[in-house]
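Chapter summary example.
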Amino acid sequence: MIQLNDNNIHDMESEAIALVEFSAPWCVYCKRLGPTMKMVEKEHGDIPMYECNIDEMEAYSDSHGIDTIPTLMLFTNGQTKASIVNPGSKAIIDQWLKENL
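The structure predicted for these 101 residues follows.
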């Protein structure tokens, strides 16, 4: 996953489709989701995937209404298309992607 920061926000927003995981290093649920997201990234290599540390990118996270982490947000041409909060399994993420791609 690409770390989202002030220098590459515009790159992410210019993608036809992109997935952003909003998380934090202290978040236990985010850490648990890490291996799952690596599998998702491997299987969906055609989708650029970014990780947004809400502590470092607070204003950006707030602008997208992030109040619970982990949150996955799918963007199309820089606009929010869909989101899912604290997905419990890879199967749930796969189904969510299938419904929203």
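To summarize the output: The chain is about 40% helix and 25% strand.
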